[in-house]
Amino acid sequence: MSEESRRGPVGVREAGPEDSEFLVDMLLEAFNWRGEERFTRKQILKDKSTSLYVAGWQRAGDIGVIAVDLAGPSGLQIPIGAAWLRQFPARNPGYGFVAEDVPELSMAVVPHQRGRGIGTGLVRSLMTKARDQGIRRISLSVEDGNPALRLYKSLGFTEVGRNGDATTMVATLDSTTQVVGK
């Protein structure tokens, strides 16, 4: 990919059922955030504690947004990041579970596009969509050392607990949550 397209304009669109494979890619990026392969795609899909974030996308209540590179070849919009929310039952919780009525956030950006504010835009856009759909709080889990922790704090997430080597955080959505879009 050329430097020009790497730094090309970025758009955000709603995630749909056709994005399920890309969400698996992004979940893999989220779990391998250190840049080393701790998990394979096969492991992510086979393990019930990780596959629950993407299995059967887009079920009722799932909300997601996709960042796209608008400077793709032949006018193609190339997906470069995603943020999505999914609710879990108490009997089958995600890593950042706090309550059945609090959906959990997952987010990742492809490595060569990080550091451009894309993740911030995705999460803000998703927070606004969630608020507009009547969701009052969202949660997440972030591992110790993950630089995304700063992003989440800057967006109003606060620590509510620990789960192993990860922090569980919650953001309250209110009328001040605003869309950031390009």
From TrEMBL:
**Coiled-coil intervals in this record?**
none
Alphabetized, the UniProt keywords read: Acyltransferase, Transferase
Database matches in PROSITE patterns: GNAT
- Gene3D superfamilies for the chain: 3.40.630.30
Molecular function, one GO term:
acyltransferase activity, transferring groups other than amino-acyl groups
Q: CDD domains this protein is in? A: NAT_SF (cd04301)
The N-acetyltransferase domain sits at 10-174
Concerning Pfam families, the annotation shows: Acetyltransf_1
Q: What is this protein called?
A: Putative acetyltransferase
